[in-house]
Amino acid sequence: MAYSSFDSKDEHIGLTAGQIAEDADIDVALLKLGQQVVSKQKEETFTQAWRNHWRAAVWSMVLGTALIMEGLDTGMLNSFFGVTVFKERFGVLTKGKWAVPAKDQTGLGDTATCGQLVGLVVTGLCQERFGSKRTFIGGMILMTATIFVAVFANDISMLYAAEFLMGIPWGMFQTLTTAYATELCPLGLRPYLSAYASLSWGVGKFLAVGILRACLSITSDWGWRLPYCLYWIFPVPLLIAAIFAPESPWWLARKGRYDEAKAVLRQISRSDLYEEGEIDGFIEYMRHTDALDRAEHARGSWLDMFRGTNLRRTEIQMGVWMTQNWNGSQIYSLAVTFLENAGMDTTTAFDVNLVLQAFSIIGVAISWVLLAKVGRRPIYILGTLASVVANIPIGALGFAKSSSSVNYGISALMILINFTFHMSIGPVCYTIVGELPASRLRARSIVFGRFVYVINGLIVGSINPYLTTYLNAKAGLFWAGTGLLCVLWGFFRLPETGGFTFAELDILFANKVPSRKFKRVVVRDALADETSGDSADHIKETGPLGPRDQLPTV
Fold this sequence. Notes:
The chain is an all-alpha fold. Among the domains are: 65-245, Growth Hormone, Chain: A, CATH 1.20.1250; 300-499, MFS general substrate transporter like domains (Growth Hormone, Chain: A). Helices cover 71% and strands 2% of the residues. The protein contains 25 helices and four strands. Strands 1-4 form a two-stranded parallel sheet. Strands 2-3 form a two-stranded antiparallel sheet. The two termini are 23 Å apart.
């Protein structure tokens, strides 16, 4: 029976010959039990998944809280430039007014970004080698130490050093927590806990605005030192929590530490969840998935991301991250400026910004509802399209004569873009990039994608001020154009990853199923479906579904 087209919605695909050969030593009877565990996870509602695996969810959220610190710094640093005591310490006096030079405003942010790039590389080298837990603990120790440099900075040079050094652990946490959540949580909780990263950033930015608003009345250096001191609220308790946190059972299984992996599965699940033999079967399913990865040249090196079908996964990983930069939401940075141009005073605009950050958090909560009802692919594509649609009238209003009503209208559209971003593209990105890679390449693939994101962020951050200066609201047309390119890429290249196990995604990519048709095929993992050794031997000799053609990639 040949499988060369998708004329039927019930079209089946199965293991490739290479995957079968790599999985030659699998215990098919035990794997059957593991398949039953996975099937039960697929059928769980959110409530059932939480009741059965709430410990996994809580540990994932605890470690994911580390990202609040980066949101804090991102929000604080940009706002510091408007704080008088900060300007008097690190700025220059020009025409009787203190101000931080534009080159330093840009330079401090870029320096922190360079530190993040270093941190991403550190995570890529350490997470798969030493595990998520030890890498996280190392990052927290480094975070605790580097905060001292910021708190006791006396000049702009020390502040540069502080931002770079703090950027390293921030870069580590950016991707470490996503990979950890993806592997620790079951299928029913995975999208929500991986998207929790976006919520943590939103909470951090919200706290940053609130803290600075509260410190505006402090007229000494503590007006900016105190906010930096508050960073220490997180590292010590998170470091202690990480010591007791479970390691990823998937990582332990990949390292051959099966007894430890079984212990973790018992630790993070309801005590009576697994029946006799099911934990052993689940570990065998992990070994089976690892074998499928190895068959597709995914043995754990950086170069493996560009070999075989992993090259396609890497391209999609890059595209998902780059869409975060180029979807058009960057124009939101002008919202407060247009509110002030409409007649709103600076203090009120500051308060409005606090409300807008709260809306970002609400947007992430809405994304969780959408994830339960809609697939990752439509949320991502439609969210990007919404940004395009909103940017077009913004650009058009840029040609209108400036007035309060026009400026308020532009601001409202920008706020709508930001809200839409945080209920679609922002959080769902982390769900997709966590599920997409082969298991052995997950940590490094997410790191590489985030590295691409940061580089593109530097580019966008460099051109955005020029667009603001020379085009003003007309820049909406530019961002509508880049957003449209992202929509087209997503339509043709972004697959639906929701509802599939890691093994099923391996089979889909190995069969080169077109991205738009992932949900139109039935994935048959024949080794996991069989129960007897004789059947397994027959599969390994003849193939699970008989000979079939390889499917073209679209």
